[in-house]
Amino acid sequence: MDSMMGIEVCSEILRPAYLLAQQASGFQFAGGPLMPSEHSSDEEPPEWAMRDEQWTIDGLLGCYDANQQRITIFNKGIEVIAPKFGLQPEFLEMIVKVHEYGHSIFHLGMMQPEITSILGMPPQGKERMVADTLRMRTETYNEVARYVHEQIAQGITKIVLINLRASATKEQSRNVCDKMIEAFNALMRRQPEEYRLDCLAHLTHEQLGKRLHKFIVLTHRGALTPDRGVWDTIMAW
Ligand SMILES: [Zn+2]
Hints:
mainly alpha, 3-stranded mixed beta sheet, 11 helices, 61% helix, binds zinc ion
């Protein structure tokens, strides 16, 4: 960490990624198996050999495994890529974590009344309800087109970065946020089109947040086919 970086600045920006993803999406994690675990790995990421060419966040920097509800951060990828985008590793890791929590909140995120009703059940009923919910959500998640998954994770990340910038009270925090937003945009340009948000660039961040939230609700209800055509129609008009 830069010695010039004050502790107040760090505490304004380096907030728990799951909280930021919850706030940006309007969903919450119920906890237990309905909340992902977070790990960091020193292994070679799957796209390590492509680190000088075109890679993806999920192949080089982090990944989300929906079948195990598990987020992994690839330290090697973070350390190599951060300086290329003028960021300290901590801030790139933050962007990547939020992206992975974006996948997970789409998978497991719930509305507060739903969580309250599950948590209020007697233990046996609660356990069964959690297991059923997890199974159904995972089935739904696995049916969604890869394009839509990445658009959702990137959309949530964009909203988080804008929210962080808006809530930063210190000049230095705002500067760090600006650098993170710049790096996020530069990262997008380095990745395949499913990671780019060009089609949604005309939306205000409130519009983006509302539409994302609705899209996720409708997907959970099985009320729409979560493929690219539907995404582009609903999200980008
Ligand atoms: Zn992703």
